[in-house]
Amino acid sequence: MTAELITGIAELTTQAAESSHDSHDDNRLADAALVIENGRIAWIGPAADAPAADSEVNVHGRAVLPGWVDTHTHLVFAGDRAAEFEARMAGQRYAAGGIATTVAATRAASEADLVANARRLRREAAASGTTFLETKTGYGLDLATELRGARAAAEVADVVTFLGAHLVPPGIDRRDYLDLVTGPMLQAVAPHVDFIDAFCDTGAFDVDECREVLLAGRAAGLGLRLHGNQLGAGGGVRLAVELGCASVDHCNHLDDADVDALAGSDTVATLLPACDLSTRQPFPPARRLLDAGAHIALASNCNPGTSYTTSMPFCVATAVLQMGLTVREAVWAATRGAARAVGREHGPDAVGSLRIGGRADLQVLDAPSVAHLAYRPGVPLCVATWTEGVRADPHASRDLST
Ligand code: NIG
């Protein structure tokens, strides 16, 4: 058992209090230190009171906070869609049908290639401070490729979601495809996945189809999440609340009833600001959701179609600069709020917060406070991470010694 002391922390964001509210100073300690032992946090307190340890890292006045919890990514794919992106920036609208381009490339790729590409993106995410990550299937859309995708996802991610109901692929009858997704495909992938998801939107699946898919997943023992209200208003959010989904993701087009439904539920609204920029969609009403009392999370939605970034700091900065969140609210939504969206806010395997006995998943910023995440947008501030107590230095040239 070796203990590692991290000291010299100008600002330690713990997210240990029960709310992100700005008045909660319990979530933020000045001049702090912490001790990591066996991958867990063994001690947190003022640097002046820090106990002796086997080794010590002085971060010399930098900020420390939980590693990012990215709960919405689609890392299992092949190819890219740069041409589609460029056309969109020249005025073309995003449509769900673009998914079929990535499906064709993914079906042609080997499982080893899918794992390698997903690992590359996971490494990229880790370099900007992500220490816990969800990813999905959904670019296979036939039994063999969805199964390859589920296995690949399970090798690379901490939480895996089955998204067979991403699009009805070309060449198959709609009813036959739903029977496949809720029958043999679900049975094949179930041992490799934690959640089931469906794309409830214009050009993808309607509310009744999504209900059928999610209920089949629940019967197979999976948790529920939903893509909803991305491209237009509709019943996605209300379906997610009705079924008690852990999360409903996107939420760009919400009416008052949607906001009220979310505010009165445990379902997290997972907002995806990088996707909104890349598809030129209006941002979701983040401020309204929070003021109404809804739970929100922020995620990257890394995928080749609508959001080809792994950068959670970019999402946090955008949420602050464009969506009206305070810095503390955005950081909460990308850490502890996100943990709630995958059912990992509490318990021994909780992530997104720094608590004695909890997982030592943390990051060091090359800045004295988390405000710099939005104050210095686009600057790669993460200089070190610990994931279950294991240190990585994404930018080795910027060490912690001064
Ligand atoms: O979350 N909205 C649905 N699925 C993905 C994008 C899919 C694609 O266009 O490749 C998303 O944005």
Query: How many beta-strand segments?
Result: 15
Strand order of the largest sheet: 5-6-7-8-9-10-11-12
What best-fitting shape do the alpha-carbon axes yield?
A: globular
Indicate the structural class. alpha/beta
Helix and strand run: EEEEEHHHEHEHEHEHEHEHHEHHHEHEE
Mean of all residue-level pLDDT scores:
96
CATH architecture of the largest domain: Alpha-Beta Barrel
Note the gap between the termini: 28 Å
The small-molecule ligands in this entry are: N-(iminomethyl)-L-glutamic acid
The CATH topology name of the largest domain reads TIM Barrel
Summed up, the helix count is: 14
Task: Give the percentage of residues in beta strands.
Answer: 15-25%
Portion in helices: 25-40%
CATH class of the largest domain: Alpha Beta
The main pleated sheet reads as: 8 strands, parallel
The overall number of domains is 2
Radius of gyration: 21 Å
CATH superfamily annotation of the largest domain: Metal-dependent hydrolases
Weakly predicted, low-confidence segments = none
Account of the protein in words:
Pfam families: Amidohydro_3. It catalyses: 4-imidazolone-5-propanoate + H2O = N-formimidoyl-L-glutamate. The chain is α/β, with parallel strands linked by helices and 402 residues long. The chain has two domains: 106 residues, Roll (Urease, subunit C, domain 1), CATH 2.30.40; 274 residues, TIM Barrel, CATH 3.20.20.140. Helices cover 34% and strands 23% of the residues. The chain has 14 helices and 15 strands. An eight-stranded parallel β-sheet has the order 5-6-7-8-9-10-11-12. It has a seven-stranded mixed β-sheet with strand order 3-2-1-4-13-14-15, with no helix packed on it. A hairpin with a 2-residue loop joins β14 and β15. α3 runs parallel beside α4, α8 packs across α10 and α11 packs across α12. The protein starts with a strand and ends in a 10-residue tail after the last strand. The model has no long low-confidence stretch (mean pLDDT 96). The protein binds N-(iminomethyl)-L-glutamic acid (NIG). N-(iminomethyl)-L-glutamic acid binds next to α2.
